[in-house]
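Protocol step 6 of 9: fold each sequence in the batch and record its structure tokens directly after the sequence line. For illustration, a two-sequence batch is reproduced in full.

Sequence one:
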Amino acid sequence: MNHSKYIRKFIITLLLPVMIFSLQKTVAQKPFHTFSIDSVHFLLDGKPFQIIAGEIHYARIPERYWKQRIEIVKAMGCNTISTYVFWNYHEHSPGKFDFKTGNHNLSYFIDLVQKEGLWLMVRPGPYVCAEWDFGGLPPYLLSIPDIKVRCSNPQYMKAVKRYIDTLSGILRPHLIIHGGPIILLQIENEYGSYGNDRNYLKTLEKQWKENGMDIPFYTADGATPYMLKAGSLPGCAVGLDPGGYPKAITMARRLHPGVPVFSSETYPGWLTHWGEKWAQADTSDLFNEIRFLLKNNLSFSFYVLQGGTNFGFAAGANASGKGGYQAAITSYDYGAPINEQGRTTPNYYRLRKLISQYRKNKLPPVPSPIPVMSIPKINMRPFTSVWQHLPVPVWSAQPKPMEAYHQYHGFILYQTRLIGRKNGKLVITKLHDYATIFVNGKYIGTIDRSNGENSIIIPKTKSKTPLLQIFTDAMGHINYGQHIIDRKGITNRVTLNGITLMNWEVYNLPLDSLYINRLTKTKASKKPGLFFKGIFRLDSVADTYFDLSGYEKGMIWINGHNLGRYWNIGPQHSLYCPAMWLKKGRNVILVFDLHQLKATPIRGIKKLK
């Protein structure tokens, strides 16, 4: 007889009631709450609840600093975090999602919010704007020739469904009904300023509900009647961007009775484009707006409380300015109460003092600032040339947009031989966005979309068939408005004195990590398009800003991490580098510049310049 079998059975029989009781006790102790809406209020556990939210974007903040940023938002008096989910940050190619690695780990971010005792408003789009590339939509959509976005286009909606189905699986365990911090979910974003496809909005709402997102929804639009009529949905709370004044609240309540109205974006700062002066938001009315909202127990969210950084190719663009195109700078400092590096500003303390007057509980202390350091002069050397690291070309009868070659960011080279017409006025129809032009390897000049430029004079040469090269810098995809379908590279055609140029070789140069890691040192070149390299050593690490004021236009990598774009037209001349991207000991800095031929030193400074 197997006595051990019966002994185990006896022990299990004795212990099972104890185990069940322990499990029931644990479940009973988990702090489940309810969140709902009535005709006026947000309701937490059935009681009116005023949302005081601070918006931060986890994708723009190094993951190691998420906790500090959340703590500093809490210390200002906020009870809620608001965040965008950038679809294209998580799905770079169709069906390949990343919600786990580093800054992509959305679940970890949500857990940190909950551990700090804060609630969470999620803004998942699919379109979000946010001065982010393509407004958060994945650029792979632009490889579909007839794609239409933000509407009921079948190809678009197929991708949207895949996104919502996948994201819902990440968010669902964190809903308030399951013991998590998520209390509100936004449907689309400021749709009333773009279109009027109500079926599209209803489909999004239906898809979220079918995926178990059983929490209140809201829409957010500008505080004008036509935007609110086109962008809202029955039963959804109404967000106003902004809504910190009586007239806006009254108007929205008249148009949409029966649901709460709140200021979903209250602006303490503003964005900046390349070539502008630093945006200085007029805060003269801000504190009056906050007083009005606090006094009347109206919910609101600061957009943004801390902006962060558009690392790599993340910065978007607007269809504005002289050339109908303005790219956003790399820094998303935004003039916000918490600056790009996570430090408090005078406005932070003014707002903290004001909010504390309306909060019953004493606010927690402000966290200590994250250390920042300067780095002495780093000597740079020419390393190699983009011309010596060209991939195998693709042939095209006429140039196609970058996305047609399944490239979505970076640079792209178009080249052809001039036959027949060999000099004169070269016109690039719809160049997106900036190009350096070469004939037989000689630099001729630039064409800049943001200046409204589309042509350049090609000089005479003695060559029978001169080689024309158009090296194109694809800056941010437009993120707002009617021109959001913004393909990159040469998006139409090229003519020389009215003759269309044919037979092109096209070189894809995404300058991604795979490309950068394969670079090898080569002989010095005098043709613009150089990489410069510097080696420096550190005894300790802290945050810093690398000063690129000695260079013209390009990108910078630190130990393989892409810090983003620089451009000597300003106003930004230094790029933020978090401490965790630096190393004790040997560090490598790599700079790619479109124009620079001479290496100049680079140093680390303590603040944005």
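Sequence two, same batch, same settings:
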Amino acid sequence: MSRPVAPTTRKTFTVALAGNPNSGKTTVFNALTGAHQHVGNYPGVTVEKKEGIARFQDTTFTVVDLPGTYSLMAYSIEEIVARNFLIDEEPDAVVHIVDASNLERNLYLAVQLMELGVPLVLAMNMSDVVRDKGVQINYHKLAELLGVPVVPTVGHKGRGIQELLATVAEVCRNPRARKQPARQVNYGYEIEPHVEQLVKVITGHEACADRARWYALKLLEGDEETAKRVQSLCPGDYEMILQRAVQLRQHIEGISGASIGTVLADGRYGFIVGACAEAVSQTAEARVSRSERIDRMMLSRWLGLPIFAVLMYAVFQLTFALGEPLMGGMEAVFEWLGGTISSLWPEGSDSLLKSLLVDGMIGGVGGVLVFLPNIMLLFLAIAFLEDTGYMARAAFLMDRLMHKIGLHGKSFIPMLIGFGCTVPAVMATRTLETRRDRLTTILVLPLMSCGARLPIYMLIIPAFFPQAWQAPMLWTIYIIGIVLAVVLAKLLRATLFKGESVPFVMELPPYRMPTLRGLLLHMWERSWLFLRKAGTIILGIAIVMWALSVWPKPGAKQVEQFEQQRDAVKARADIGPEEKVGLLGEINNAAAEAELEHSVIGRIGKGVAPVLRPLGFDWKTSTAMLGAFAAKEVFVAQLGIVYAVGEADEASETLREQLQANYTPLQGFCIMLFCLVSMPCMATVAVTKRETGSWKWALFQLGGLTLLAWALTAVVYQIGRLVI
């Protein structure tokens, strides 16, 4: 732990004034320094350099009026001069004069100053003009969101100048306050990891470590002045750093379909728009941008959430409407493949290799892969909503609800990621500022219906519900997960994790039409993760489950009893051929089921069945639930194995048809509900342990959600039996 830093005893400090042209910077400079100023030029250039002296109590400030700039991009000599002064001279404080009546445009420079890491104070100038326009700015809220002090001023009337000097003095005198980092723009889970990769490379060089993120962003933007500076600081590894920056820039531009400058500018403006949406009661712009016009409806207090619900319903409807015929084709392919492999053995053959290939591998993994079209369509739709900028609005909408449960909208971002996979969602909680927020969010994340649960829903819903009800049922399951997460988060924040939420800015990027390449790339990346899991984890588990379902074999006495029954039916002369086939099928089914019950998996299923019977589950579904702990998709694979092994004469039937014959719609709904709420997969438990640093929270999550799932599903099933 670092030692406390005592306030300095210095009495003189250097303060830089930055700001956009026409922001009132010169007026504030004159109000601060009065007649104590002089004018010269910066060394080597014709840009004017103005300095003055300001005093507050017993402290003296040398105030340097930097050239007016809109950014720190080094496009003009003024921007280069201002940036070099801030980096080379390292003033004790930087006061950014902001035209409060043109807030969003002016804050773009503020965001870049925050990225540069200077000790910053925002002077919200022309605050009287803003007030006269009927616009209310919550300066305290804005300061919390940006992580820097904010002081309203009216430069030409001298209002707020003493308050500004007092704030600057505090920042200059207190090294801890001066070193306190401002909040940084998060460029999203597609871009931010690549920025962090370059930051890690640069941080390895002590000369660049203090401003590693700034150098990383500038190198990604292709800033030549920054490249020269990095070369002088890290001459030995400069080529390696630059090559890595070029590779990451090309990758980002390939994913986004836009230049790196546009991507980063969108991220910064999204940060600014989010801050203004929180701290400003209405826009101060006379002209309203296209994004703002759309947001008036999308972020409406009354229409925002209904629009979100309708859009998600449309996504699920699309998933079923387009995915159903594709899924039927996949089922036909795997049925043909299973039949082709079976034909390699004589009819009635009891080969273990045949059973492994057909029942274990094709029945297990194939039963999961048939849902790949639906999963790809869902990922495509979500990628479209993300790339257009709407998903950021969804998080902003949920921010209002999150505040009421003790969290904020930033917690909803990992939840959105959780619809794809819980593991990266847990890792995404690293962006949350406090440990209580992180723990609360991590513990409820498994309630988001990840892509691994989608095969379960895709199996159950069409099996038990007519087409008109399929999208509403899927929508309902997703909403149940969200509602449960909200309720549990509220409970956790009221008990285990009491405390105030830290304010933050919710980035609202401008709306953009995504590129087809970007959409397909996002869809494929997520779908590939599913395929890779199916080809490795699920295949391995399916083989293990198959082995457990065929060994040990029943005793010779039991086998002999079924053979005697078959011989007796074949010898009967009082029944016709069709009736004989029917009776033999019943005997074969009974023999196969007896064999399955005698196996390891059957005995385990029988053992846990009494615990799960109040939920409407028999020993077969109970067995599949145990397999789902390894990976949720294994539930489908295990059912495929159980029914392929257990019902020999129905091998040609699809798994859905077999479920329809054995269970009710109420039982089907309870299966989905239990799979939604119950124990997260092993990978989630492992990453929860790693991110929380303790097995305590991982096991608390595992046990708590499983108990909740049992209780909730039991209540639904028992009440459903009475009502239906």
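Proceed to step 7 once all outputs are recorded. Observation for sequence two: Residues 516-723 form one domain.
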